[in-house]
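The freezer alarm interrupted the setup, so I double-checked each line after restarting. Inputs confirmed:
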Amino acid sequence: MFRRLEDPRAEIEFDFEGREVTAREGESVAAALLAAGLRGFRATAVSGASRAPWCMMGVCFDCLMEIDGLASRQACMVTVTRGMRVRRQRGAKALDGAAAPFDDDEGEFA
Amino acid sequence: MSAVYDAVIIGAGPAGMAAAITLADHQARVLVLDEQGGPGGQIYRGVEEMSLMMPDLFAALGADYAHGDELAARFRNCGAEYRARAMVWQVVPGEEAHEVWVSQSGRSFRVLARSVLVATGAMERPVPVPGWTLPGAMTAGAIQVLLKSAGVVAEDLVIAGAGPLVYLLAAQCLAAGARPMAVLDTTPRGNLAAALPLLPGALRGKGPSYLAKGVSLKLALRREGVPVFGGVTDIELKGTSEVTDIAFKSRGRPLWLSAAVVALHEGVIPAQQMTRALGCAHDWDPVQRCFRPRTDGFGNTSVDGVLVAGDGAGIGGARAAEHAGRIAAAEMLCRAGRIDAAARDRLAAPERRGLAEHRAIRPFLDRLYAPPAWLRDPADEVIVCRCEEVTAGAIRAAARAGAQGPNQAKSFLRTGMGACQGRMCGPVVSEIMAAAHGMDVAEAGYYRIRPPLKPITVGELAAAELD
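Predicted 3D structure, all chains:
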């Protein structure tokens, strides 16, 4: 799927749904998660279909994730930082602003 | 009220950077706003960091990419005020000055500008084929962004589409040591014959160097033995929760490949979100089948004091964008009273010659890569509006039920009202509506775009600072 080329940039760790993921300083949350093997980034609010980044440049809004507690952020436009907390969103947002937890029994994240 | 900038430039790609350098050279007060962490736009994405940190990959990406590093360095040192990670969510034209509303680090503020240069560039044309919403389906540009900004390469990659970027991406992947499994070329049969009469024009100016680059990219693929399928139609991405295969026809012959990542690309079109929101007049390009903001020879739009330069005004490529940026800068200097009209024209003259040299090949390329007819006529079951999951069939049914155009399709179906605000479905919905009613796409029109251009929180809006 995706692999990293040799990269001397500093490694930083962030939290993805309780798991520690290693990223490189300066890259986007979406790039870090694609490199880590994530396929489905969210489930749509309409049908629950699985989606992932399409454009990687802020146009398509298909990489929306909950980042540091704020839902529906463009993962391709947010630079990853140490200790950042990232979660997938499933379906429509609840009234309290929280995204529904992702049903993670699909084993799609290596 | 805080001081008014002579010029606010939205976008730090080649057009925006070049304009800023010219403005700053003439002591203008200029502010550049850009969504990315560093200058370069998408074409030179990540160029500063790449040249420092990953010299091998930087070299592999080629001389044209390396040019962006020089331009970015000149931009950094030119004296223009530059804000990175700054997202413009609203521009309000005014009599004395235009208001530009910006979000940066979770805080919104307003700046004032005598003139605004929209240098927001292009986006890739949407490619509504069955399965294009599955994880693993991406644009060619997305694969490039991963390479340039993160040093991440795709494995089990099939590249499908038409246009210069298809072959450039394949060659860049090869140079980075990630061999694409196949290239599926969707250039319609007949395009080459239709483009040939335009070839003499393409041999003027910088045309030959573009043609030579194209030929060398294709030869590189052949030398490396990357399979290239021609005459590709009927693309379908297969998989239940993610892409696993791609089915297609090559010259009518049905074929099937396994693929974890499919890069789709059918050319680039001007990103019209901002110029639409500003109420600028747009014209329909019947060859490239896209809307472009109407501009004069300086980049002025129909809205006084709002200019567009670069691919956002019509696709011309990065080098043409630099010239267009400097021409727009000359006009903005004149508007700010820093130079007179004669000086403006002197400043613009050599840039016009440069622009013409880089544009010489465009009529040929535009015709050669005129998008295939099937792209504007997706099957009924294909999702067109990715956000609201509205199919082509539903849009056609709405048209039959009386929806007169894209904006009525919104009220019938919510198409274009999701998170991307119509960026992804707009071009296709206009085509489907035009076909359904037997009208020209120019007549069918386009979505009305409203602020905020990108989502901001209510809290940020409430706390926005005036000056």
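Quick read of the result. The two ends of chain B are 6 Å apart (CA to CA).
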